[in-house]
Design goal:
26% of the residues lie in helices and 18% in strands. The protein has 395 residues and is α+β, with helices and mostly antiparallel strands. The relative contact order is 0.20.
Length: 395
């Protein structure tokens, strides 16, 4: 799903109200057992009540987010953004991740990605011509792909380091309905994190630890008007997060058995699903063809990929997984997505044999959740005059 921070699901026309936080034991449980202990155990369906076998804490249907959703002033936006970034960097440093610089342009496209292109002039600005239909044409010397993520680059960096991350500026095109989601931007930042790993459980555990540490660092530096941010930060510290297979997520979202089971959650299904939770949770174990990125396949044919979801309508925060094992897997999945493999990446994988895992986290989405903001548009910096200003203008 992150536009994804690889899928792009959103929810439209959402309203929220204040909700008092409940005790820890109000988090999702099944017959008194922690949710994560039974997620995915389909053979226990006769023991579990409710849709797809999950029993969730009761809640008012009109009280969707812990704490009143707020609109931020420019000053508040700068403050929240700076303090979340400060805390995240401290957490990643604690976990021995080395910050690297992003590569702003690439000669290769990512299969399945919706790239935009940067055109460079020949010792002068490229010539931009306004066409009669409102479009533009550009004449220049070179064209490069603008980043939609840093998935390949961060993997290749691990030939020279064990754990890396970077704050990557990204540009992606908005699809139908995403302008109103409160989660999507044309230009945004991904915190892309990667390390040498070959185990999916380790990938989930490390991610939870990073976010728990971030919440710990945020607490003493919360802005004075933080409201119920402490409640939301406590959710980030509630590891281990529940884990839900993609098949079970479809059922919880309301997908009927006679409807397609190999297409991603719709915005409405995602909203129904996240409304069932009071804490972050994972969706994992996706069938091949649902995701638009490359991941390792397990013995059962499912991809070792995961989405980290925020509760109560906030939706997807991060997407990641175990990377492909070898050049063959890269080539097969790239062609399934309708493209050709990145030859630099495929050759590097064949030569190095390095196995990695990681994730891309939507930074503005993280700030929105911590601050309780109504929309990521509330977090636009006053100095940003780019395409995000077009959102809502119906251009």
């Amino acid at each position: 799903m992150f536009i994804d921070v690889e899928n792009g699901l959103g929810s439209q026309d959402i309203s929220y109200c204040n909700r008092a936080s409940g005790p820890a034991d109000e988090y999702a449980t099944v017959k008194g057992a922690p949710f994560e202990e039974i997620a995915g155990e389909s053979d226990r369906s006769d023991e579990i009540s409710g849709v797809c076998g999950f029993e969730v804490s009761p809640r008012h249907s009109d009280c969707l987010i812990p704490g009143s959703v707020v609109s931020l002033s420019s000053a508040q936006s700068y403050l929240w953004t700076g303090r979340v970034l400060q805390s995240l960097r401290r957490s990643l440093l604690e976990h021995d991740f080395l910050e690297i610089l992003p590569a702003l342009l690439s000669s290769e496209a990512e299969p399945g990605a919706r790239h935009s292109v940067a055109v460079l002039g020949d010792r002068a600005r490229p010539k931009v011509t306004a066409e009669s239909d409102g479009r533009v044409s550009v004449d220049g010397k070179w064209a490069y792909q603008l980043p939609v993520s840093h998935s390949v680059e961060k993997q290749m960096a691990l030939e020279h380091a064990d754990r890396v991350y970077c704050l990557t500026p990204c540009l992606r095109l908005l699809m139908d309905g995403e302008e109103a989601s409160g989660k999507h931007l044309y230009t945004f930042f991904q915190v892309v994190v990667e390390w040498r790993a070959a185990d999916a459980d380790e990938a989930l555990t490390v991610t939870e630890s990073i976010l728990g540490s971030l919440a710990r660092h945020m607490k003493p530096i919360l802005p004075d008007d933080a409201g119920t941010a402490v409640t939301r930060l406590q959710g980030l510290r509630s590891a281990p997060y529940p884990r839900v297979s993609f098949a079970d997520a479809l059922k919880l979202g309301g997908r009927k058995p006679d409807e397609p089971q190999n297409s991603d959650l719709t915005r409405e299904e995602e909203r129904t699903l996240t409304d069932s939770f009071d804490s972050p949770f994972w969706i994992h174990r996706y069938p091949l063809g649902v995701r638009d990125s490359l991941y390792q396949r397990g013995e059962d044919g499912l991809q070792e990929t995961y989405d980290l979801m925020l509760p109560a309508g906030y939706g997807e925060l991060a997407t990641g997984g175990l990377r492909p094992r070898d050049k063959r897997e890269i080539t097969e999945q790239s062609r399934l997505l309708g493209g050709e493999p990145n030859p630099v990446y495929a050759d590097w994988k064949e030569r190095s044999g390095i196995q990695t895992a990681g994730f891309g986290l939507g930074f503005e989405r993280l700030v929105r959740y911590c601050a309780g903001a109504d929309s990521v548009l509330d977090l636009l910096a006053a100095h940003d005059s780019g395409p995000n200003r077009r959102i809502g203008a119906h251009e």
